[in-house]
Structures are given as structure tokens and as C-alpha cells.
Design a protein that fits this description.
8-stranded mixed β-sheet, binds flavin-adenine dinucleotide, 16 strands, alpha/beta
Length: 365
């Protein structure tokens, strides 16, 4: 390649690609709109397969979190079912994960330009917020859920009753550590679910996906949380473990286009991570897809150049078809009043939960 590749977005997809490209002798420029690395709204569950890919990228899993999540616990309709995960997983705050990946990419020679927001992409010409234009030979679009004019996902990708993500941080305490311990918990309720897991600092991340209609019916995020807490007592116990007088800050993200996936792209443009496919988050595989897409797109680019983008995009879409579809089926079962209470029972069938967990993983690339 005559020019440096350009990556838009320094989340897990963009940094995985940056690490691979830098290692392969083509250190990229990465444009990241945030000046400081934040703590993106995310459950932070990292599967055993993603741990392996991260380690292949030179990221030490213990530096993310030395503790492991070894079991899954599902709560629905007053029932609880628990099973071991096929392999140990971990949970990490996005602040830690993104920082470690960005540092590794920069250490290998990637140039991360912070505070630079891309406003528009026309063909492969990128226009930043301050009006500068760049026309790279190879563009890797890794802007996550954020759509950029010119390459935005279609509005229909959000569906009829789009989901929103809500997050509450539960401060570390003996009670929350004893309740959650070494499990990833899923609490199912009408039109949504909440995942809870302990992060590297002992605090718990309670991350929910809820349909917009449920928020509209409740009136406000606080009213919605009170309703959900009344419906799901085990979840209420956990939220109360970190609650002072109120819920603290409730972070929110709207219109998550779950189930969206594309095999089409513009010449020379690789769409990575959530820009390639958005898996329902109860599968805990969005980071896995992001890292796998960064890894494999960079390898394709290094091996065959920017013209490989269209072929790579089609292949990657095929690779993620089954996990995205399977996660969608499980999500819709988790949302139905008749089927949700059956899921804790499923967890009690030997190896059933492990099979579900495997069916929603992106295959090793
Ligand atoms: C409620 C919820 C819970 C989830 N829980 C989990 C989980 O437990 N486990 C899991 O694996 N996945 C989970 N996910 C999914 C996961 O968060 C995403 O799939 C993952 O973050 C995608 O990574 P990415 O690099 O594609 O995008 P992102 O992580 O969104 O990174 C995109 C980066 O691009 C930057 N950017 C955006 N726009 C621009 C622009 N115009 N110019 C420059 N930079 C830009 C952003 O600042 C950001 O740094 C969850 C998602 C939700 C909504």
C-alpha cells in the first residue's frame, strides 16, 4: 500500500485492526472523536473465544481482569437456573478494554488522533468536523453504533419497536460481590433483559436492553426501573446493593439496530464491528464480532490490498450469519411471556446452556 490505511473509531474493532495492520508493517492512522477514552455503554462480557483472539493480538487477559466468570445464571418468572459456561470468560469495563487496546496499537506504531470526528464519507473521501478531507486507499469504518453520513445504515435497521440500552453502575460491596460472584447473570422481564457481571474493580455493571415501547409506557427511565424492580425481585436485590438514595446516573443509548448485518460495501471500505453486524447483546458477543472483524479485515487488507474489501465483507457477513440469527431467536424467546420462564429450566438441562452459548459465538477466524 502506498498510503497509510485510515481507521475511523478506536473501539475494539478499530483498535484490533490497528494492532494487526501495525504488526503487519502498515501502521494506520486512527481518527477517534472522543478526546479521552470513556466508558462506553456495554455489558463488558468477553467470551473465552474473544479472550483467545485478544491474546493473539498481544493483550494479556489478566490485565483486563484477573477474575473469571465461570457460570451463567438466568432469572425469569420467579425461577432461577444456573449452569457452567463452556469455558471461563471475563468481564471488563470498556474504559479498561479500550485503553489497553489503544495503548497496544499506539505502541506498535498506529497513530491515534483524538478529538477528530468524521462528519461525512463520500465514496472513500472522509470529511472531518473541522472541514479537512482525506482520501485514503483503504478505509476501515469502525464507528460502532454511530452512523456517518454517506455510509449510514438504513433507517429500517432499527425495526418497529427499537431497543435502547440502559446502564447502572453498582458500586463494589461485599453484598453485590456475594450475590453475583463468578457468574454472568441474565434477568429477563417484559420486553427486555438486564445482564449483571462483576468488573475488574469489583463493581457490577447492570446493562439492560429494553424496547422503546416499554420506556414510553413507563414515562421515564427512573419509572421504568421501578417497574422492572417490582417485576424482577432478584434484579431489585442487586440494584439495591449499590443504591444510596437513588439509582445514580442512568446511562442510555437509543435505537440499537440489533440483528443488522451487511455483506455490501463501497470499494476500498471495510465495515467493522457494529458497522458490519449488530448481534443482540444478551449473547455477549458484540466485542467478539468487533475484534474478529478487525483481525480478519486487516489480514485481508495486508494480503490482497484495498480491492479485497468487497470479498472480505461478503465473507464476514456469512461468518456472522448463524450467531446473529441464533442470538435473535433466543432474544425473542426471552421476551415472550410464555417462553421466558422456560429459559431457567433450560439452564438446568446438562450442556444445554453451553450449546446455546456456543451457537452465538463468532467462529474462530
Ligand atoms: C446494552 C448493551 C449491552 C452490551 N453488552 C455486551 C457484552 O456484554 N459483551 C459484548 O461482547 N458486547 C456487548 N455489547 C455490544 C458491544 O458494546 C458492541 O458490539 C461493541 O462495542 C462494538 O465495537 P465497535 O468497535 O464496533 O464500536 P464501539 O465500541 O461503539 O466503538 C466505536 C468508536 O468509534 C468512535 N466514533 C464514533 N463515531 C465517530 C466519528 N464520527 N468519528 C470518529 N470516531 C467515531 C466512538 O467514539 C468509539 O470510540 C452490548 C451493547 C449494548 C447496547
Amino acid at each position: 500500500m502506498r498510503q497509510q490505511p485510515l481507521i475511523v473509531g478506536a473501539g475494539p474493532a478499530g483498535t484490533a485492526a490497528a494492532i494487526m495492520l501495525a504488526r503487519g508493517g502498515a501502521p494506520p492512522v486512527v481518527l477517534e472523536r472522543a478526546r479521552e477514552t470513556g466508558d462506553a455503554l456495554c455489558g463488558g462480557f468477553v467470551s473465552w473465544r474473544t479472550i483467545r483472539t485478544l491474546e493473539q493480538l498481544g493483550i494479556d487477559a489478566d490485565a483486563l481482569n484477573p477474575s473469571r466468570a465461570v457460570r451463567a445464571r438466568i432469572f425469569a418468572g420467579g425461577r432461577c437456573g444456573e449452569a457452567m459456561l463452556p469455558r471461563p470468560a471475563l468481564a471488563v469495563s470498556r474504559h479498561r478494554l479500550d485503553t489497553v487496546m489503544q495503548d497496544r496499537a499506539a505502541m506498535l506504531g498506529a497513530k491515534i488522533e483524538r478529538g477528530v470526528a468524521v462528519r461525512m464519507i463520500d465514496d472513500r473521501t472522509v470529511t472531518t468536523a473541522d472541514g479537512a478531507t482525506i482520501a485514503p486507499e483503504a478505509l476501515l469504518l469502525a464507528s460502532g453504533k454511530h452512523d456517518i453520513r454517506g455510509l449510514a445504515r438504513p433507517a429500517e435497521a432499527r425495526g418497529q419497536d427499537p431497543a435502547l440500552g440502559l446502564r447502572i453502575r453498582i458500586a463494589s460491596s461485599p453484598r453485590i460481590r456475594a450475590l453475583v460472584a463468578d457468574a454472568i447473570e441474565l434477568h429477563l422481564f417484559d420486553r427486555g433483559y438486564c445482564g449483571i457481571v462483576l468488573q475488574e474493580d469489583g463493581s457490577a455493571n447492570a446493562c439492560m436492553a429494553v424496547h422503546r415501547s416499554r420506556l414510553r409506557d413507563a414515562g421515564s427511565p427512573e419509572a421504568l426501573l421501578h417497574e422492572i424492580a417490582a417485576e424482577a425481585p432478584a434484579l431489585a436485590d442487586r440494584l439495591d446493593a449499590g443504591r444510596g438514595a437513588d439509582w445514580g446516573t442512568i446511562d442510555a443509548i437509543a435505537n440499537v439496530p440489533y440483528g443488522w448485518r451487511t455483506g455490501a460495501t463501497t470499494a476500498g471500505v471495510f465495515r467493522l464491528g457494529d458497522q458490519a453486524a449488530v448481534i443482540p447483546s444478551l449473547a455477549g458477543e458484540g466485542i467478539g464480532i468487533a475484534v474478529a472483524s478487525g483481525w480478519s479485515s486487516a489480514r485481508a487488507l495486508l494480503a490482497a490490498g484495498p480491492l479485497q474489501a468487497a470479498t472480505w465483507q461478503r465473507q464476514f457477513a456469512r461468518t456472522v450469519t448463524a450467531p446473529v440469527r441464533n442470538a435473535g431467536v433466543i432474544w425473542s424467546l426471552a421476551e415472550q411471556r410464555w417462553s421466558a420462564p422456560l429459559l431457567p429450566l433450560l439452564a438446568r438441562i446438562p450442556r444445554a446452556l453451553g450449546a446455546v452459548a456456543m451457537a452465538t459465538r463468532v467462529p474462530a477466524l
